[in-house]
Amino acid sequence: RCSFNPTGTATGRFSSSSPNLQNIGRGAIRSAFTPAPGKCLIVADYSQIELRIAAVVAGDQKMLAAYKAGADLHRETAAAVLEKPLEKVTKVDRQLAKAVNFGLLYGQGAAGLVRYAAGSYGVDIEEEDAARIRALFFARYKGLSRWHSKAWEKARAKATEVRTRLGRRRLIPPEASEWERFTALVNTEVQGGAADGMKLALVELAHRLPTGAAIISTVHDEVIVEAPAELADQIRELTQTVMIDSMAGLYPEVPIEVEAHVC
After folding, report:
1. Cα Rg of the chain (Å, integer)
2. For the whole model, what pTM was predicted?
């Protein structure tokens, strides 16, 4: 059995140790994790929650409009940064856009985007192309650009703290560099806000699960519940509803989506 620390990271996410059950790599070892006889696992995951929260925090109208319309933000970004019609965006283009969306969200430069795209998404781009993509990205998402500019202003003014929408405070050390202050300011508002919403969901779900079902793990934006097989579909729906309602209570400006499966 591992240990969970509810505020184990600087932004306020859970961490796990001895062993770290939030970091089980893909492969054969995952087959070692099975439900008890007569039970199923329900795995529920927030969809693009950090991008959705960033759209709210930054007040980015393009991102908010895309989510409200039910559009695929990765495809929208691919079309914008590759300067091609939406209908011509390929799976490879969309993979690149995922690296762009998640990488540039927290202020990466062109060189950082090159490394992130290759390391996290297996997409190779030249630094010159990354610089052009970065410029096109912020030209489209002007709200994000303004939010980053304000964060840099606060960083240069030596901001000493940042709060999530829930009001949870993170102190920034006096010796922090401008870059460290900037990343603390943007990461905490978004990733920290997602962590707050997840904790609200876990508390509510724990109260509402029937006898025989229990939360057994959380992995960042994901909840894993073990439930009797005959109640699996019912508990999948309950888990999905509670997760959506809890996060939407914090961020009503954007639609919240949760993908939930019986395993």
Report:
1. 20
2. 0.93
Question: How far, in Å, CA of 49 to CA of 63, rounded?
Answer: 12
- pLDDT (tens digit per residue) in 132-187: 999 999 999 999 999 999 999 999 999 999 999 999 999 999 999 999 999 999 99
Q: How far apart are CA 259 and CA 70, in angstroms?
A: 14
* C-alpha span between 154 and 179 (Å, rounded): 11
- Can you name the residues that pair with 44 across neighbouring β-strands? 223, 260
List CB contacts of 101: < 8 A, sequence separation 6 or more.
Answer: 51, 73, 74, 77
Q: What is the pLDDT of residues 77-129, one digit of tens each?
A: 999 999 999 999 999 999 999 999 999 999 889 999 999 999 989 899 999 99
Which SS3 state, helix, strand or coil, does residue 158 take?
A: coil
What are the DSSP calls for 23-35, one per residue? Answer: ---SSGGGGG--P
Shortest CA distance to 123 belongs to which of 111, 135, 115?
115
* DSSP 3-state of 82: helix
- The answer to whether 40 and 55 have CB atoms below 8 angstroms apart is no
Catalytic residue list: 45
27 half-sphere exposure, CB direction, 13 A CA radius: 4
List the structure tokens of 122: 């297996």
Structure tokens at 261: 């499966």
Closest CA to 60 of 135, 149, 141, 140: 141
The alpha carbon of 107 is separated from its chain's Cα centroid by a whole number of angstroms, namely 15
